[in-house]
Description:
binds N-acetyl-L-norvaline, binds phosphoric acid mono(formamide)ester, 11 strands, 4-stranded parallel sheet, 5-stranded parallel sheet, Rossmann fold, single chain, alpha/beta, globular, 318 residues
Amino acid sequence: xxxxxxxxxxxxxxxxxxxxxxxxxxxxxxxxxxxxxxxxxxxxxxxxxxxxxxxxxxxxxxxxxxxxxxxxxxxxxxxxxxxxxxxxxxxxxxxxxxxxxxxxxxxxxxxxxxxxxxxxxxxxxxxxxxxxxxxxxxxxxxxxxxxxxxxxxxxxxxxxxxxxxxxxxxxxxxxxxxxxxxxxxxxxxxxxxxxxxxxxxxxxxxxxxxxxxxxxxxxxxxxxxxxxxxxxxxxxxxxxxxxxxxxxxxxxxxxxxxxxxxxxxxxxxxxxxxxxxxxxxxxxxxxxxxxxxxxxxxxxxxxxxxxxxxxxxxxxxx
Length: 318
Ligand code: AN0
Ligand code: CP
């Protein structure tokens, strides 16, 4: 594997699960791989889990780790080519990326959808420039359309908790006060479609995701129907994808909040969310604090997914 931006880069899903299991059981077995190798993590957006878990994964692999927050201490970067740079951005990404590449062996990038242009977001303008210009292997720490390290951790978590070979997994939209990208639901859908689970997506009308990600999933507009007999409930907010509402909030309807009454319709389902989560918007206190909530275990598995990915990159490129 050279770069990691989606499920398509990881190869066979069963062997990805086996590789993650090995990493989880033997966290320090591959320190020779990372010795004298530098991991550079570039953040265009805030993070708690990705920042800490990916850094820890690097250390577990024996790597040196550098973290840079663009927007906090670095020069503001221009990303559009051809502009006259007479504004507030002193440096262009076309110089900054090759420079960053000279300081490291592997680069992780977080660059959310900006909702300025659907085309730019869905063409993954930022992370693709890192792939083209850095000269180093690049992995996504949530790009404009996908969050594959999260989805890989979600898959590992479902594998650990599932009670049947083919669990019913439900991705549900839930309300949120600010417009959020589709990266997490897109990516989760893509990874679930790579398994043989029963996979259902539920959301209000107008929140249809790009069909490329929906794939073979069943889309059910009635949330309560969708929850029936579910083994896992995966909640997430996202802003509208479809034109002309791309990036807009169409509903803040709290009847979509995941609560105890709805969880009672499920097959004693586990509750999942990538975090950060807004309590009593996305999910009630009662559900997230219940013993069926596995959000902390899910977040812990972010070290495992990051380590499994960086290990493959090191093995295949150095
Ligand atoms: C981000 C999102 O929804 O994509 C990151 C989630 C991992 N969430 C927020 O900005 C609150
Ligand atoms: N789930 C996740 O990626 O969290 P952070 O935004 O805190 O990194």
